[in-house]
Amino acid sequence: EPLIQRSDDKPDNVARRLATFREQTEPVIAYYAAQGKVVKVNADQSIDAVWSDITASMDKVGRA
């Protein structure tokens, strides 16, 4: 089938979305990271392993 490119997938639109992410989302992540409330999970593993890491992290947060 021929490639169909959506208007929101064009380089200018992607660049604009990334800029918005950097301006609006990264500061929120930094804020919570400074409080020790951000947990990174390795998503390059099986779905079950990712879920296990997420639930283990949530259990730790619940005990804090």
Overview of the structural elements:
- The chain contains 2 helices and no strands.
- The protein has 64 residues and is mainly α.
- The mean pLDDT is 90.
- The chain is flat.
Q: In summary, what is this structure?
A:
The chain has helices at 11-34, 47-63.
- The arrangement of helices and strands along the chain is HH
Estimate percent helicity: 55-70%
Low-confidence stretches: none
Largest sheet geometry: none
Shape: flat
Residue-averaged pLDDT, rounded?
90
* Number of extended strands: 0
Portion in strands:
under 5%
Secondary structure category: mainly alpha
Radius of gyration: 17 Å
Count of helix runs: 2
Distance between the termini: 53 Å
Question: Can you tag this structure with a few keywords?
Answer:
flat; 64 residues
Helix/strand layout:
Elements: H1 11-34, H2 47-63
